[in-house]
């Protein structure tokens, strides 16, 4: 049987490494999902070539540093199965590289998408209507009751993905702020805080990412629907 040439073996080994990281590393799954969303938004907004290059650079650096971090962690575990201060330092430094790259990706995304999102928000504010404190509480109650109803329906049908109530409320508030404020930067900061809450709540067993994401989408969708269909 003919053996694959050297470059084919190298490509196969590299592909196996990507598959392993994607299958076993929670952060890698999130990075791939975020990359798909960001690239889809880039196509949706029709970004210029220079902005797309910056987006691709940020996405590539994010995935590469996560792959290196995974390699460092496994190498340290192999060389030092027991707890050791130097092993901890090696893992912490590798994780720090991922954090720095993530910060670069976030800043790049905010700079690149700021103008397109501002135009989109300004268009959505056309015909804006006043809102009272009472309608805000009614909207939040609507989000909470809807999420509870969906959770109850899922719980009666087995172990489906149940939307998170906390992320639903957080993204409902962020969406409402984006609909009301005139400053787009404030709107983006609201969504950034909601996203930070989502990541902080993430727990593989108690709060899986799918549950948090479903709650966020549900809260944002209900808010937009209620805001533009009901004259608050």
TrEMBL record:
Q: Where is the active site?
A: 66 (proton acceptor)
Q: Which CDD domains match?
A: UDPK_IM_like
Cofactor mode of binding and number, as noted = Mn(2+), Zn(2+), Cd(2+) and Co(2+) support activity to lesser extents.
* UniProt cofactor(s): Mg(2+)
Q: Which GO terms describe its cellular component?
A: plasma membrane
Membrane topology note: Multi-pass membrane protein
From the record, give the transmembrane residue ranges.
30-47, 53-72, 93-114, 126-148, 160-178, 184-202, 209-230
Q: Name one GO biological process term.
A: phospholipid biosynthetic process
Query: Can you tell me which residues bind substrate?
Result: 66
Official protein name in the record: Diacylglycerol kinase
From which source organism is this entry?
Paenibacillus tyrfis
């Amino acid at each position: 049987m003919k053996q694959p040439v050297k470059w084919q073996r190298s490509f196969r080994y590299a592909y196996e490494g990507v598959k392993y990281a994607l299958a076993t590393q929670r952060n890698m799954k999130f990075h791939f999902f975020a990359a798909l969303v960001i690239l889809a938004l880039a196509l949706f907004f029709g970004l210029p070539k220079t902005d797309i290059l910056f987006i691709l650079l940020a996405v590539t650096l994010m995935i590469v540093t996560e792959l290196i971090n995974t390699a460092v962690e496994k190498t340290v575990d192999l060389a030092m199965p027991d707890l050791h201060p130097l092993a901890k330092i090696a893992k912490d430094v590798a994780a720090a590289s991922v954090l720095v790259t993530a910060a670069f990706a976030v800043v790049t995304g905010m700079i690149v998408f700021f103008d397109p999102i501002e135009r989109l928000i300004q268009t959505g504010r056309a015909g804006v209507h006043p809102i009272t404190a009472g309608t805000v509480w009614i909207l939040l109650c609507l989000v909470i009751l809807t999420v509870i109803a969906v959770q109850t329906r899922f719980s009666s049908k087995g172990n489906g993905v149940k939307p998170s109530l906390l992320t639903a409320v957080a993204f409902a508030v962020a969406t409402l702020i984006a609909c009301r404020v005139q400053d787009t930067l404030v709107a983006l900061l609201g969504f950034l805080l909601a996203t930070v809450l989502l990541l902080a709540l993430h727990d593989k067993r108690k709060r899986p990412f799918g549950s948090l994401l479903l709650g966020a989408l549900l809260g944002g969708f209900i808010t937009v629907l209620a805001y533009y269909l009901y004259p608050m």
